[in-house]
Design goal:
Blueprint: E1 10-11, H1 13-19, H2 24-32, E2 40-43, E3 46-50, H3 51-66
Antiparallel strand pairs: 1-3, 2-3
Length: 88
Amino acid sequence: MSAAPHARRTIRRQQLREIVPLADSTIYDMEQRGEFPQRFYLTSRCVVWDLSEVEAWLDARRHASRANAIKRAPSPDVRLRRSRPVKH
């Protein structure tokens, strides 16, 4: 089901930060890899994202997480830390 063209909503960076708690650099990197909805320019100084695309991305991430399809980062080896290494 697609929204009518006049009903589409866009969000600016601050609103995106409230919805998606990721750093700007992480979002940018994910956009470059095609893993996050692409931003677009309304004017030369106004960048926005399509709200429905961001919500669809969140839903897909939620379903992938519940299906254990998202690989978690490995735990760091605390013995290799420069400050306060743990010795066994």
